[in-house]
């Protein structure tokens, strides 16, 4: 599905990613954990196509295409989805209008006809129910005045509408209480199938009780320093990141 | 220096005077001769500091009754509205429709007007002396149908000098739309002066669309007097033209009036748009709200100068003013100057001015959902303009404006 090879990236001249290698296959769920400043969100941003980051080395193959050559919109149209850590408020653009434009531009890219009004409304109804998002929120301005939990649920609602092949959840658990966390995780689990893949970026193990990963990777100083099963997440929770640092021979 | 200035001023006005139809001269009496003393505005004057019009001195404009056949269907918006048409400033009864009951209309060329006294300038002087037509309307009772007035320029190098007068009788209500359009992309001058009286308990909405040729110069002056318990709204959309200058002066003369002033200007290339507004609260217990928004691209420049004046005994005034601008390029510029002058002590007034760029975070968010850069920018611009568009009471006109706004910019060059 996606192959990240020796990925290096800078922001404002400072190297954040220092050679990331990661293979994710269809049907898999991967988690990336790591302390603050390890480069987790940078990885998500680089994959989604944020222009502030400069890729200095390496490549990313997504659906047999060179992902880094594509514009952010073409990455999304190819089936990449980023659930933002901080979803953006866009006053004056209604959620529904925004999603309809997105769905239709993705369909046009694939040579498909625009979605009919009736079909679209049914999609909105079904998929907002998936994350228990009040359908009234769907007609409001994008994220405007939404609570933290509503914003994160709105991200997963968008994911449900756009049906990506590869979704990156960037700290989707941050700022969520336990109920909201369960709702969001249930939504993600329901969207999971053998043809798509998910990359969960998180600081805490908590989310991984609900979205169970096949692989857990530890990112530290811009590199993946350890890979294991879901048990690795539990171990990290118990021992903290200092354990990794110690293992790497760093003084804590 | 003064003499040279005087000489050039006259040269511009003299060239217009020389073209002015002979048969109209007599009815204007001394105004025609007085026009020779009009000063050409320079940027040394506070009122024209950021708006340079010296290029006009090289232009030669003609009064031309355009007699060729014209299909006006492309320029009007609402087929169900009553329609009054002027071409190059001359009334065209053949293109105008029947007017609804309750309106008393005649071509203003048949009327005499008092000279514009307050804040007169070269353009008001030109219109005093050389207007060739306009609407002279009394709204005697409420009219449901919107009234569309199309001011069309055609043929190139024309000067349209129009003078309009609208009077809304006591307790009557009406909605007018002024459409300033061009049949071609030629250079010309529109000089439009409108005086409006909103009588006690009357309601009036005026929507203005300034979608001129990209080579056109547009001067627009609107003077409004509101009487007690009246409501007046004006929405001005400046979407195309080489240079657009709007002078809006509103006087609240009776208590308990409500006033809404909104504007949206979108300019690109080397275009320039200037909005000067004055809200004069002379009496107590009134409300006014002003919102002007601008989108500037390319090397476009703009001016917003909004003044709210609250007189000494005008207590309990609620007056709000806001100007917001988005600059889409590094070379676009806006000079924004909101002013409050308050001489009463029990009032609630606020003003504010903001200038920013397109929200890059929002743009990335939309693109990350598969929306192309151009559509994403259109969505954001439309949302930004939405606050002004929401004021349009007529849904079909609103949709029409949205289409024009979408078509207005070529985003590829951003």
Which SSEs are present, and which pair or pack?
The complex is a heterodimer of chains A (252) and B (414).
Chain A lengths: L1 E10 L2 E11 L4 E5 L6 H9 L4 E10 L2 E2 L5 H6 L2 E4 L6 E5 H15 L7 H14 L4 H5 L1 E2 L5 H15 L3 E5 L7 H14 L5 E6 L12 E6 L2 E6 L1 H10 L2 H6 L5
Parallel strand pairs in A: 3-10, 3-11, 6-9, 9-10
Antiparallel strand pairs in A: 1-2, 1-4, 4-5, 7-8, 11-12
Chain B lengths: L1 H18 L2 H7 L1 H5 L47 E6 L2 E2 L11 E5 L14 H9 L4 E5 L7 E7 L5 E10 L4 E10 L6 E10 L4 E9 L5 E10 L4 E10 L2 E10 L5 E10 L4 E10 L5 E10 L4 E10 L7 E10 L5 E10 L5 E9 L3 H8 L5 H17 L5 H14 L6
Parallel strand pairs in B: 1-5, 4-6, 5-7, 6-8, 7-9, 8-10, 9-11, 10-12, 11-13, 12-14, 13-15, 14-16, 15-17, 16-18, 17-19
Antiparallel strand pairs in B: 1-2, 3-4
Helix pairs in contact in B: 5-6
* SSE string of chain B: HHHEEEHEEEEEEEEEEEEEEEEHHH
Helix content of chain B: 10-25%
Q: Assess the beta-strand content of chain B as a share of residues.
A: 35-45%
Identify the strand order in the major beta sheet of chain B: 2-1-5-7-9-11-13-15-17-19
Structural summary, described in words:
The complex is a heterodimer of chains A (252) and B (414). Chain A has a single domain (2-247), classed as 3-Layer(aba) Sandwich (Rossmann fold), CATH 3.40.50.300. Chain A is 37% helix and 29% strand. Chain A is built from 9 helices and 12 strands. The longest helix of chain A is centred in the middle third of the chain and has 15 residues, at 95-109. Chain A is globular, with a radius of gyration of 18 Å. The termini of chain A are far apart. Chain B has one domain. Chain B is 19% helix and 39% strand. In chain B, β1 (82-87) and β2 form a beta hairpin.
